[in-house]
């Protein structure tokens, strides 16, 4: 949803399946007036959704932005999808901030993670 310079250096942890992901991929328009403020507000709102697990984001130098939201169940995802402020932000995004986007929603059936605990050997 943003270039998120404050993004953590680690991805969101692997959760016990099943859970849901919403993958939002976008190319933004040159005029991003008001985007940062709306993005900050959306981050505040989504944290209050019961069943919200976290979010990962990345942006390429060419402007492709990917946001992955993690939700414990379909009800949590539906609560986010239907939130009134989120719906208004979506409309503004289509009118002003996005050149194009796609949204993919999936149920995760398998999940695992890895953390290196020592420096790699040369």
Task: Tell me briefly what this model is.
By secondary structure, the chain is an alpha+beta fold. It contains three helices and four strands.
Could you describe the 3D structure shown?
- It holds the Pfam family ABM.
- With 122 residues, this protein is α+β, with helices and mostly antiparallel strands.
- The chain has a single domain (22-108), classed as Alpha-Beta Plaits (2-Layer Sandwich).
- 30% of the residues lie in helices and 30% in strands.
- The chain contains three helices and four strands; from the N terminus they run E-H-E-E-H-H-E.
- It has helices spanning 35-47, 74-82, 84-97; strands spanning 19-28, 52-59, 64-71, 98-108.
- Strands 2-3-1-4 form a four-stranded antiparallel beta sheet.
- Helix 1 runs antiparallel to helix 3.
- The protein starts with 18 loop residues before the first strand and ends in a 14-residue tail after the last strand.
- Mean pLDDT is 90; it is low at 1-5.
């Amino acid at each position: 949803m943003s270039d998120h310079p404050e993004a953590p250096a680690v991805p969101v942890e692997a959760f016990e399946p099943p859970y849901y992901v919403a993958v939002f991929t976008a190319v933004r328009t040159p005029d991003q007036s008001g985007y940062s403020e709306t993005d900050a507000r959306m981050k505040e709102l989504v944290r209050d959704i019961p069943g919200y697990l976290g979010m990962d984001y990345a942006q390429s130098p060419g402007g492709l932005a990917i946001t992955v939201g993690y939700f414990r169940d379909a009800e949590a995802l539906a609560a986010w999808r239907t939130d009134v402020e989120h719906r208004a932000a979506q409309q503004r995004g289509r009118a002003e901030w996005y050149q194009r986007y796609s949204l993919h929603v999936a149920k995760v059936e398998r999940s695992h993670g890895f953390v290196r605990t020592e420096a790699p050997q040369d």
